[in-house]
Structure formats: structure tokens, C-alpha cells
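We were asked to recover a plausible sequence for a given structure. The inputs and outputs are reproduced exactly as logged, with field labels preserved.

PROBLEM: sequence recovery
POSITIONS: 71
GIVEN STRUCTURE:
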């Protein structure tokens, strides 16, 4: 499994997201390659993200939709 986490430049949730992902993967017994990437609003719009953080699992955005909340 590959998990890509995209965050706005100002997002402060990386530490908590990292902790929660590690705990969830451990509970489920799943191995995953996880990456964390900081992106600006233009990149978020291009990628179609709804907010920050955006979590993409095996190429699928976990919360697709309107990108107006990315900041």
C-alpha cells in the first residue's frame, strides 16, 4: 500500500496525522509506504484536493470534491 499525504504550507497537522496513520496501520496489520508532501494552493487546485491534509491511498483521494478548503 502506498499512502501520499499532501499538506498546505501552513498546515499544522503533520505530526498528528503521522501518529494516527501509524496507529491505524498497526491495528489493521497493514504495511504501507507513507510520504508527506507540502504543496501550495495552486498545486492543490491542480491535483483536485478538498483540504489539508489530503490523504491519497494507492492513487485514490480519500475525500474527493471541491478544493475551496485547501489552505
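RECOVERED SEQUENCE:
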Amino acid at each position: 500500500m502506498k499512502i501520499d499525504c499532501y499538506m498546505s504550507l501552513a498546515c499544522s497537522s503533520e505530526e498528528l496525522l503521522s501518529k494516527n496513520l501509524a496507529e491505524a496501520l498497526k491495528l489493521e496489520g497493514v504495511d504501507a509506504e507513507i510520504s508527506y508532501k507540502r504543496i501550495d494552493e495552486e498545486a492543490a487546485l491542480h491535483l483536485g484536493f478538498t483540504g489539508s491534509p489530503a490523504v491519497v491511498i494507492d492513487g485514490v483521494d480519500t475525500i474527493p470534491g471541491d478544493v475551496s478548503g485547501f489552505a
